[in-house]
Amino acid sequence: MNDATGRTPYETWQQGPARAGDLVVTVATKPGVFAHGGLDAPSAMLAEAVAEHSASAGHRSLHLGSGNGWVPAVAKAVGYAPTAIDRYVTNAEATRRTLDAQPGAAHMVHHAALASPFVAPDSCALVTIRIATDKLGVQLAVAEAFRTLAIGGTCLLAGANDEGAKPAAKLLESVFGNAQLAAQHSGCRLLVATKRSAVAGDDTVFDNPWLDADHFHELTVTLAETGFVASTRPGVFSWEHVDEATGILADLMRIENGESVIDLGCGAGILGIAASRWSPQGRVLMLDADADAVRCATRSAAQAGSVNVEVRASDVASAGADARVDVVVSNPPFHLGKGTELAIPRAFIEQAYRHLTPGGRLYLVANRTLPYERLIGECFGEVLTAHDGRRFKVIGGVRRA
């Protein structure tokens, strides 16, 4: 149901208090923001540890994986000038709203996967890391923390044990030469390390080529009678291979020359580039929330010679503005919609419908266990099934008016 302004629940921002020790900050959130509707224990550990700090004027802090902005807001409250980094546009916007509501020193928020383009070496007194679930992402974060910290600076790292907190602790100790377990509960750990030397204990972490934001994996793509090379990076969906679901959808989606297309959740741009080949006289708009996906899709389209493609960072399809297209294709993240939380897949489908012209078509591929048919039926009035396989299904609808 839409509110009085016409916004859906997914599009409606909320604000609420978050406590860390004696500090209370106002945090912005909505569906799609990290930890929306719940308390993230590792973030709480980081916030409580930061609340015990006191920063002198001019001291800078860096926050990797800022989520809803709770941790950098606490840092701002105790006197730091925070820089927050998050690769997902919804999180970056939540952090921006949270920090804007917090008085104190100036702050910066970047929608990016890496801090290196924005934060100078040896410039921070504090770095916090809410670890990613992938090993490579943790390695990059620890390397960036060591690079950006000044001598004597503190690194706080937190995560759940089933997210890799234990190996992350070992990595932290190997790089900094020290790491202490500061807190442990709810299956989560908080580690603290101090930069005591300009030279890392294990400097092989800096040999990682992915610390260079301009380093890409070149993926050869052959599907549905078209071939090209796509650029990918770690953390971008299916970055090392073309996933099975994308191949199935590419075989089944029908796009005529001259038709306009939105690739919703485009990743490295594989479906959008295929669409641009089939409709060279049409326009293709590729949208993704992940900062590196946007960079990869932009590079992929340029390498493929797809001059009719535009790529934008987007919270679902919000960056599509008032664009109306003939076809929307989507291979959304499979974890969305599990259990009873359907706000995000509902937003994918509702915003796809909103952007279609009368007679326009939605093609969506998903794990066959996900209950998207009801959402499509409620929005489009009917559900069309193009494929019902052992693992994946391709479903969609036609906008009738």
- Please count the helical segments: 10
Head-to-tail CA distance between termini: 20 Å
The helix-strand sequence is: EEHEHEHEEHEHEEEEHEHEHEEHEHEE
What general form does the structure show? globular
Task: Fill in the CATH topology of the largest domain.
Answer: Rossmann fold
Major sheet: arrangement of strands: 5-4-3-6-7-9-8
Instruction: Please tally the β strands and state the result.
Output: 18
By helix and strand content, what is the structural category?
alpha/beta
Cα radius of gyration in angstroms:
22 Å
Helix percent band: 25-40%
pLDDT < 50 runs, ≥5 residues? 336-340
Largest sheet: 7 strands, mixed
**Overall average residue pLDDT:** 94
- Strand content of the residues, in percent? 25-35%
CATH class of the largest domain: Alpha Beta
Q: Write the CATH homologous superfamily of the largest domain.
A: Vaccinia Virus protein VP39
* Integer tally of domains: 2
In short:
With 401 residues, the protein is an alpha/beta fold. It is 28% helix and 30% strand.
What would your notes on this structure say?
It is a single chain. The protein is α/β, with parallel strands linked by helices and 401 residues long. The chain folds into two domains: 9-211, Vaccinia Virus protein VP39 (Rossmann fold); 217-398, Vaccinia Virus protein VP39 (Rossmann fold, 3-Layer(aba) Sandwich). Helix content is 28%, strand content 30%. The strands form four sheets. Strands 5-4-3-6-7-9-8 form a seven-stranded mixed sheet, with helices on both faces.
